[in-house]
């Protein structure tokens, strides 16, 4: 653009008038170019909620299975997933209530839901409105249990690694290393 301006200005006799006109065009175009320039990207740190969503989804699936398939799912899920494994407080309250009522032999889902608070009932309504696309509920139960087992083993593995770094006792280190190797073998079998 500058080259064009210089070439045009040198060929014209009436440089004064044309020069001001060209300067006006160049100024206008430089404004356009500034507008069209990309702004510098801003780095924003967004909290990662992927893990929370994954946990929440697992917990909702447990509730879904316990409500829709109570006879088939309760024993298997109760044996492997405790109430303490649940992170969301609302889901924890729902699952705790379901576990308690199923232990008493009460399998009337509507009666159990009626005994829950409004927040828990709203949560159950949201869960039941979701489509989990479960074709084989037994496989869904087994997969869910496997995920929780893997998560527990991984958590224990990291605890052992921290204990190994902090411990100076040789006998305790050997025991921890043995437990760690057993956990790694179990994790390999699960995958």
Uncertain regions: pLDDT < 50 for 5+ in a row? 1-5
Shape estimate? elongated
Class from helix and strand fractions: mainly alpha
Oligomeric state of the chains in view: single chain
In percent terms, what proportion of residues is strand? under 5%
Mean pLDDT score: 79
Tally of helical runs: 9
Let me know the number of strands.
0
The radius of gyration computed from the alpha-carbon positions, rounded to a whole number of angstroms, is: 33 Å
Q: Largest sheet, described in full?
A: none
Distance between the termini: 63 Å
Helical percentage: over 70%
The ordered H/E elements are HHHHHHHHH
How are the SSEs ordered, and which strands pair?
Layout: H1 2-11, H2 15-36, H3 50-68, H4 70-80, H5 89-104, H6 109-115, H7 118-129, H8 137-166, H9 170-190
Helix pairs in contact: 1-2, 3-4, 3-5, 4-8, 5-7, 8-9
């Amino acid at each position: 653009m500058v080259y064009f301006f210089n070439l045009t200005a040198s060929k014209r006799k009436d440089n004064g008038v044309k020069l001001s006109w060209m300067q006006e065009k160049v100024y206008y175009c430089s404004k356009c170019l500034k507008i069209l320039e990309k702004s510098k990207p801003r780095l924003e740190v967004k909290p990662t909620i992927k893990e929370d969503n994954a946990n929440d989804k697992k917990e909702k699936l447990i509730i879904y299975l316990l409500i829709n398939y109570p006879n088939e799912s309760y024993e298997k899920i109760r044996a492997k997933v405790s109430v303490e494994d649940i992170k969301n407080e609302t889901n924890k309250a729902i699952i705790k209530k379901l576990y308690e009522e199923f232990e008493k032999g009460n399998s009337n889902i509507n009666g159990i839901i009626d005994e829950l608070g409004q927040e828990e009932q709203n949560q159950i309504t949201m869960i039941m409105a979701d489509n989990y696309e479960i074709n084989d509920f037994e496989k869904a139960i087994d997969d869910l249990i496997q995920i929780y087992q893997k998560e527990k083993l991984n958590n224990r593995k990291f605890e052992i690694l921290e204990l190994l770094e902090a411990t100076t006792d040789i006998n305790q280190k050997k025991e921890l290393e043995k437990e760690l190797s057993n956990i790694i073998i179990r994790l390999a079998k699960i995958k």
